[in-house]
Write a structure and sequence with these properties.
Elements lengths: L1 H22 L4 E2 L3 E4 L5 E7 L36 E2 L2 E4 L8 E7 L16 E8 L11 E5 L5 E9 L7 E3 L5 E6 L4 E7 L5 E6 L4 E3 L4 E8 L47 E7 L22 E3 L2 E8 L6 E9 L5 E3 L12 E5 L4 E13 L4 E15 L20 E4 L7 E2 L1 E5 L14 E2 L5 E2 L4 E6 L10 E4 L14 E4 L8 E6 L9 E3 L5 E8 L8 E10 L6 E7 L3 E2 L1 E2 L6 E7 H4 L4 E10 L5 E3 L19 E6 L6 E5 L13 E5 L8 E4 L7 E4 L1 E6 L2 E7 L6 E10 L4 E3 L5 E4 L2 E5 L8 E9 L1
Length: about 750
């Protein structure tokens, strides 16, 4: 019974000891290691910080001749070897920002070998540097060591990189083993590559956290499974000056249970908890923003590292940026990144918000399309933006979506009219401007990404007048994301609804359908414009003509010429009404099909325009005839083409009763070419075009809608001048062509005289 009891106690003690050893970090030693081989020849290898971590003026080993290293004739390295030896393993990094330089020294003073002469600086020796994990050798096959001033003392450097692309470099990846060998002595030294940064996990507070308190608990777990993290115990070289300090530098009685500290404050050497940094962080250690000292009594050992948690008060009512930086024994440095994406580092954010949300501004005419995640023009919508305290200087105040509904707001007609406008719905997109994937982000009317966590879109039951400025009252129990409840308040809306225009074109009297001017150069088209609200000046009116752009990537109807800018004249006795008129020459456009485009600005600076163009009015802008007010400048009726059937030659017949065809070509006089690959297109003329519609059938628009011709004279004149009136005997072939059966003719010469008018 005693034996069994004793065995159980011993086992328990062993298990407890193993558990303790499992979480305690190993202490490191200087990486400089010397192996003595045959003939008392020695091989020494050490790991150093390289040029990226030391100035070129660094004293000591920076003057080692390193002709075999391609990047410099002399290669600046740290004065002392770094503490990267853990147990019997020497670790080396594979990044220029860490400890990737390996110093190699051979002492071979045996004159019989031919490697030593009476004087120094004369000889060289070579060593083998090989990645025994992959089989790769150093770039350059071997490493040449140059003799120093003392005869028989040889030194050189090589660099560990991920590619080994230059002479004096060797390619290696994490956990690879690099062997340095000097054949004459039979000695070799192995180095293990640590190419992985420390892991920083379980960070708190969460990025974007909101709180009504002026304090927050900061915490994280930092581990490194490779070379490891330095502890606060003895046997560690704090400054890498070749001297190991005693343990417990902060005198808190904790050594292996916390990371290396720098002194009495408890600030840590290789872990920075930087609070109050810029949005991009600073990536530094032991600077003014490092509050690792607050964790002095709060560190806990975990496998391969430590975790901590501490409370920091006195946080300002604002957004505080913070980060954690950690460095392992070989200098691999990790910095937390809030968004986790490649590229620049972004600090975490924690925001203290003690201020109630309030409406900063209300804008009419801006709605939200939840399907496309874009703002839209909508005269029945209000865009409501919230800031802390409702001021322009206040930070965006993110709202709690779950606390919002339509009953939280009341919309009144104006500041002086309390008549309520019914609310149909409310939308709080609640999307960050940095949301992932990027397709989830909200865009404003201009197409730019915006943050909608502090924006609400209210849809009214009916459209607002163009110059409406309703009052929005906050009357509900909603709150911001930090939990601050909104107090009752109100805001007068800003008019963001652009004016809309009704355009009426008047041409020649007695013409039905599309307006047209007829004939004389002095005839005009008149344009009347009515705005739905007062303008700050008379609108600008332009006539447009059109072309087809058949260039690659275009294939569309465009404005050919944006005509003369005409200023509307106020119409006496009419409200918000202006008019102008122009001849074809005065309009600045050519004959044929024309459109009218109107622009104007209301009293609140909102610019409005008629629809139908793909951008601001200009030449070469895409055009949709189904949406543009159209008219025609028609200067003349084309001369007819008269042909006879049957014939024996162009104008000769043997028939006594021939037929003649009269074709005016009116339907083709203003056609638009649609092919040919040019701008404008030069082939395939058409007299109509179709334009697609949203949720409706395409609309076909005729280019020349006035292509019908009416004959007013049709005379047959013989050689003696005798006239036979044939008007009324013609048949209609099409709207602009006719056929006539001539009466029985004697042999002779005849003339056909025709007059007509188009419609």
């Amino acid at each position: 019974m005693k034996s069994r009891s004793r065995f159980g106690i011993v086992s328990a003690l062993v298990v407890a000891m193993l558990a303790l050893l499992y979480v305690l970090p190993a202490f490191a030693a200087n990486s400089l290691s010397t192996i003595t081989g045959t003939g008392s020849r020695t091989l020494t290898v050490g790991v150093y910080a390289g040029p990226s971590t030391n100035a070129a003026t660094t004293a000591g080993l920076n003057h080692i001749a390193a002709a075999s290293v391609a990047t410099a004739a002399t290669r600046p390295v740290a004065t002392e070897a770094m503490d990267t030896k853990v147990g019997s393993t020497i670790y080396v990094a594979a990044a220029s920002s860490a400890y990737d330089q390996v110093f190699v020294r051979v002492v071979d003073t045996d004159g019989t070998t031919g490697n030593a002469t009476a004087n120094g600086n004369n000889d060289t020796v070579t060593v083998t540097v090989k990645n025994i994990t992959t089989g790769a050798s150093i770039n350059g096959t071997t490493l040449t060591l140059n003799e120093r001033a003392s005869a028989g003392y040889f030194r050189g450097l090589f660099q560990v990189t991920t590619t080994g692309g230059a002479t004096g470099q060797i390619a290696a990846a994490d956990t690879n083993v690099i062997r340095v060998s000097y054949a004459a002595s039979g000695a070799s030294v192995d180095l293990t590559v640590d190419a992985v940064k420390p892991a920083i996990t379980s960070t708190t507070p969460a990025n974007g956290s909101l709180s009504r308190l002026s304090s927050a608990v900061f915490g994280a777990t930092i581990t490194d499974a490779g070379s490891g993290l330095r502890a606060d115990g003895s046997g560690e070289d704090l400054d890498n000056d070749g001297t190991n300090e005693s343990g417990d530098r902060d005198s808190d009685g904790i050594t292996s249970g916390e990371p290396m500290t720098t002194g009495a404050t408890g600030q840590t050497k290789d872990i920075g908890v930087n609070i109050g940094v810029a949005a991009a962080g600073d990536g530094d250690f032991q600077d003014a923003t490092d509050f690792s000292k607050l964790a002095s009594l709060g560190w806990s050992s975990v496998t391969n590292g430590w975790s901590f948690a501490f409370t920091k008060g006195d946080l300002a009512e604002a957004t505080t940026n913070w980060e954690i930086v950690a460095r392992d024994r070989v200098g691999n440095k990790a910095t937390t990144d809030a968004d986790g994406t490649a590229g620049s580092v972004n600090a975490f954010k924690v925001t203290v918000d003690k201020t109630a949300p309030a409406i900063n501004k209300v804008e009419t005419g801006i709605g939200y399309n939840a399907t496309t995640k874009k703002e839209k023009l909508d005269s029945s919508s209000l865009k409501v933006t919230f800031t802390a305290g409702g001021t322009d200087a206040g930070a965006a105040d993110f709202l709690s979506t779950t606390t919002l509904d339509t009953s939280d707001f009341r919309v009144e007609t104006s500041a002086t009219n309390q008549a309520e406008l019914a609310i149909d719905s409310l939308n709080h997109p609640n999307v960050s401007s940095t949301a992932l994937p990027t397709t989830a982000r909200t865009k404003n009317l201009a197409g730019s990404v915006i943050d909608t966590r502090n924006i609400v879109y209210i849809k009214l039951a009916g459209a607002l007048a163009g110059n409406a400025k309703p009052r929005l009252k906050s009357v509900g129990n909603y709150s911001d994301a930090a939990g601050n409840p909104a107090a009752p308040h109100s805001k007068i809306a800003t008019d963001k609804i652009a004016p809309t225009f009704t355009v009426t074109i008047t041409g020649a009297s007695g013409v039905s359908g599309r307006p047209v001017n007829k004939g004389a150069a002095t005839s005009k088209l008149s344009v009347s414009v009515v705005s739905d609200e007062p303008l700050n000046a008379a609108p600008t009116i332009r006539f447009l003509d059109f072309k087809w752009d058949d260039q690659a990537g275009q294939d569309r109807l465009e404005v050919d010429t944006a005509g003369t800018a005409l200023t509307g004249v106020a119409t006496a006795g009419a409200t918000n009404t202006w008019s102008t008129s122009a001849t074809q020459a005065g309009s600045g456009v050519t004959t044929g099909l024309v459109g009218v485009h109107v622009t104007g600005t209301d009293k609140n600076g909102n610019a409005g325009k008629t629809v139908g163009l793909g951008a601001a009015v200009a030449d070469n802008v895409s055009a949709d005839l189904s949406k543009i007010a159209l008219a025609e400048f028609d200067a003349a009726l084309p001369s007819p083409t008269i042909t006879m059937t049957p014939t024996v030659s162009a104008n000769t017949t043997e028939s006594t009763k021939p037929f003649i065809k009269i074709a005016f070509g009116e339907a083709k006089e203003n056609q638009i070419n649609t092919t040919g690959g040019g701008d404008p297109a030069n082939a395939t003329p058409v007299d109509s075009l179709s334009f697609a519609q949203v949720n409706a059938a395409a609309v076909k628009v005729e280019i020349d809608s006035h292509n019908a011709v009416t004959l007013t004279k049709l005379d047959l004149v013989d050689a003696d001048g005798t006239i036979t009136d044939l008007l009324g005997t013609q048949g209609v072939v099409s709207t602009d062509s006719f056929v006539v059966a001539l009466p029985t003719l004697a042999v002779g010469t005849y003339t056909v005289k025709v007059n007509g008018t188009d419609d």
